[in-house]
């Protein structure tokens, strides 16, 4: 089995990477950054997003695993203290794979420029450089609303705990093949009206954003944000491709949500 390791680049993560790499080579696995069967990310969720982007062209051949060197993450299961245990699992046990849905994003341009098609693991966000954005929002080819505000966020189930959560979106279990549309500060008055609630769209229900007047936007795909000009439309739907995670032990999604967001601040005995 070929493997590759992507580190966040801080001293701790680089040390973990070096150790793991040596251990796995000692177990006769081959380090191959070009064609890995297994990609190990060492750092945080941000590092995992980076690793995903690096191997996005071979999702069907690669499975991912995350080790965290900071706090517990949504894509990072293992702690740096468990290295020996993890290395033995990787070397000795055939891995169990769990698949999560991804978001397909297609940006089309006014000029004859080629459309840009990509995938997001967390979300796509669209904002403007100044003022507000106005979009005709279509769902499944039909006009749904005219959105005016700071922008929109369209996320995957595993991304629902990231930016989407800060925007008041719901947390979606990744076994549901869906995407979620959340508003970023919509303007609602006698002239402009938006639904106001996050929308959850099933597979094949494409969401198309057609900008009105403006055509320059800041578009974020996971951790990468860029400015695009001459934007004609942005199309989002559940992707055909999926990400494959390696699992050596169960870590239910709701436990992860609980452990990341709910801290028992005070024991019950101390309640007033
Ligand atoms: P960052 O600024 O370090 O990320 C913000 C936080 O989101 C970090 O604590 C990161 O964890 C966490 N995170 C990333 N993916 C997550 C997920 N699926 N579920 C729960 N938390 C998650 O930047 P980054 O590390 O490059 O991550 C990029 C992501 O940041 C974007 O995809 C977006 O979702 C999120 N973001 C959130 C806001 C907001 O909530 N207002 C604004 C901008 C971007 P780590 O510390 O482990 O990396
Ligand atoms: Mn980060």
Characterise the protein shown here.
This protein is of the alpha+beta class and 272 residues long. The protein has two domains: 2-95 and 248-270, Rossmann fold (3-Layer(aba) Sandwich), CATH 3.40.50.10330; 102-241, Sandwich (Tumour Suppressor Smad4), CATH 2.60.200. The chain is 18% helix and 41% strand. It has helices spanning 11-26, 45-54, 83-92, 163-166, 253-261; strands at 2-7, 30-31, 38-43, 63-68, 78-79, 96-109, 116-120, 123-127, 133-139, 142-155, 178-186, 199-202, 207-211, 217-221, 224-228, 231-247. Strands 6, 7, 8, 9, 10, 11, 12, 13, 14, 15 and 16 form an eleven-stranded antiparallel beta sheet that branches. Strands 2-1-3-4-5 form a five-stranded parallel beta sheet, with helices on both faces. A hairpin with a 2-residue loop joins β9 (133-139) and β10. α1 packs parallel to α3 (83-92). Residues 44-46, 49, 73-74, 122-123, 158-159, 161-163, 166, 222-223 line the site of NADP nicotinamide-adenine-dinucleotide phosphate. Residues 44, 46 line the site of manganese (II) ion.
């Amino acid at each position: 089995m070929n493997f590759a390791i992507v580190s966040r680049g801080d001293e701790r993560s680089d040390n973990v990477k070096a150790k793991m790499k040596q251990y796995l080579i000692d177990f006769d696995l081959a380090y191959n950054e070009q064609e890995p069967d297994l990609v190990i990310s060492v750092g945080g969720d941000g590092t995992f997003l980076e690793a995903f982007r690096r191997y996005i062209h071979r999702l069907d051949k690669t499975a991912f695993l995350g080790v965290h060197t900071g706090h517990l993450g949504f894509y990072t299961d293992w702690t740096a203290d468990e290295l020996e245990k993890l290395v033995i699992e990787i070397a000795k046990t055939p891995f169990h794979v769990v698949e999560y849905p991804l978001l397909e994003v297609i940006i089309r341009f006014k000029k004859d420029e080629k459309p840009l098609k990509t995938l997001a693991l967390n979300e796509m966000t669209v904002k403007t450089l100044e003022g507000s954005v106005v979009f005709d929002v279509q769902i499944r080819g039909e006009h749904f609303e005219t959105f005016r505000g700071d922008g929109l966020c369209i996320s995957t189930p595993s991304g629902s705990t990231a930016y989407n959560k800060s925007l008041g979106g719901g947390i979606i279990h990744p076994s549901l093949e869906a995407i979620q549309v959340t508003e970023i500060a919509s303007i609602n008055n006698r002239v402009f009206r938006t639904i106001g609630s996050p929308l959850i769209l099933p597979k094949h229900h494409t969401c198309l954003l057609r900008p009105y007047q403006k055509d320059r936007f800041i578009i974020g795909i996971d951790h990468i944000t860029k400015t695009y000009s001459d934007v004609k439309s942005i199309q989002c739907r559940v992707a055909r491709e999926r990400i494959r995670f390696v699992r050596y032990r169960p870590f239910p999604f709701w436990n992860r949500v609980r452990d990341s967001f709910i801290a028992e601040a005070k024991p019950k005995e101390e309640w007033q």
